[in-house]
Amino acid sequence: MGLSSGSDIFNPVASALIDTYAPAHTIRAVLGTLLEKLRDADWDTYDESREEFRDNPVIAEVFARNLGHNLYGEGSGTLESRPKGGNAVWVLRCTTHGVLGTGDDTADEHDRLVRNWANHDQEEHGGDGIVDTDLLINREVNG
What we know:
With about 140 residues, the protein is of the alpha+beta class. Helix content is about 45%, strand content about 20%.
């Protein structure tokens, strides 16, 4: 499939859920399943769809939870949601130093670990320490 062609499927479904005031748990379930199926079929939705809905915290959470993040700076790592005993946990991992931390399966814990990555990258790899706010689920939306 072509790059970002999955957004032709994902975006109208996400918009319909928003337009009909679907509850957050419904949005998470429907879009999480849709992302999983699109990814299984090798359709890319990440760049265009993530950008289109970046100011919607529920959809930002769906992307984070289902696709994780590759983290960069002077070092590199990942932040992913992993199953653990019927629940899930966020796992922050540095390619050099291994697991740096975990957090409960909440948006607040996700964002705490994104901030921890910026601190780790600065202290251990000489990075700038700036948090990539595009990765945050609960970010301030500026007019």
